[in-house]
Amino acid sequence: MGSFRFLMKDNYKPIIVQSDGSILLEVMSEAYEDARDAILPFSELVKSPEYVHTYRITPLSIWNAAATGMTCDEVVARLERFSRYDIPRGVILRINEAFSRWGSVRLLRADQSNIIVEVRDEHILEEIMSNRKLVPIVKDVMSARRFVIPSDARGRFKHLLIKVGYPADDLVGYDDGEPLDFRLRRKALSGEAFGLRQYQKEAVENFWANGSPRGGQGIVVLPCGSGKTMVGMGVMEKLKTCTLILCTSVAAVRQWISELVDKTNLTDDKIGEYTGPKKEIKPVTITTYQILTYRKSRRGNFEHMNLMRARNWGLIIYDEVHVLPAPVFRATIEIQAKRRLGLTATLIREDGLEEDTFSLIGPKCYDVPWKELEQKGFIAEAVCYEMRIPLPRHMEGKYRAASDRIQFRIASENPYKDMLVRQIVRRHRGESILIIGQYIDQLKRLSSMLDVPLITGSTNESRRDMLYRAFRQGDIPVLVVSKVANFAIDLPDASVAIQVSGTFGSRQEEAQRLGRILRPKKKVSTFYTLVTSESPEENFAHKRQVFLAEQGYRYMIRELSYADLDS
Hints:
- By secondary structure, the chain is of the alpha/beta class.
- The longest helix is centred in the C-terminal third of the chain and has 15 residues, at 536-550.
């Protein structure tokens, strides 16, 4: 993280470490940014009200820090540097315990059929042998610290092991896969000079780890707009092997294809699109999570999951890995011999399966704070506003009589938002504006009011592509989009996003929506979230803000009155 800017007297130190492992960070302190950057690699942001943010140290947050090379002494030193009071002894003991568990179970290659598991001490073996789910996997006990499991149980063993508090240090290595001549161009077909940025090169090298068994699995965390696709292509150049790429949407699939054709030596006959309209399997094949998890009935088979074994893939790339569906996790358990790269803007999963991502895709191997890339001009500077508006008086009775879920929807579709959207669009005339929401009726109303196009899940692919292209070229200045635009859509000229409704408190959604306006540009981008005051929507907005506060962004809150909206 580099050296911190100044020495502090104890009274000015901005954090308080509590006995339960939570950390209170004073936002108004002069040392706030230094302290935040110091603790982020080994803690998770829990909540971020205006003046004091709360972080939490967990075993998983420590293991991710350990995987990037951070030591226990480094973590404690950072806490001591910024802590106003002594760190509770119990917290230091738990940090030590989490670090001691990292690497306490190692997986080593024996032969094609077997894996040797080596534990740090005999008590761990006793714990494993007393676990009814783990013990059936054990094939043979060699000593008090070594035993054998079958190679095909590698993923299942790691998955179960982390559930009992032991992250496996997997040093077995990987199959090389079918070779592929793959090179990045120095000049893209579009005519632009092309090369990986320094942080993208670092991400590639961290994943590769000099070709050692320690590399080849892991997650790269970078902001939307910072070029995660370029990192994926950099890894593909390192490995030069047939690759399967999993995406969130058909639009994202085609975006990957476009980038591969433009920036690599691959020709069309080497790139396969495996989606609804097409079912091509080629040396580089790109598909969606939706296709992989398709089945005709709830109890039916996943008809396309065999794609993960259709060729001798040497690399599988999981784009937007934080939304990886559970069935794909289960398939990933069986393919641990393949190198696996996860790309994401956030490790947060709304389903709480961060441990599964860690054990089956790999630990975090690289990240860069969003604000650092903003300061260097790699992503746009952004200003975030939460616009709080009242509910129309004539709707208050209906609102009070409704259930929690209906109250949330009434607040989300507050008709005063239409008036505010009109004001914001007028204020940003001449800029490219995205209006993003959850509820189709609301979006149709806004599209009609502003006389601008609307894209939803039912919009066919050709029309979507045409509208996205027209927006990129500036022919359409305002575009209304549903949640289909949350993921992997490249709209580099968008400089204003207006979020009129969202999915409860989804932090990952907030990250993706902000990301739509972070592509590098000369102007400052503006992100508006429209929220009904004193409603469940306002409560959920606090949760979504956690992610942005974690990245260094601060919301400016504007309370609007009836008079403001009627003006």
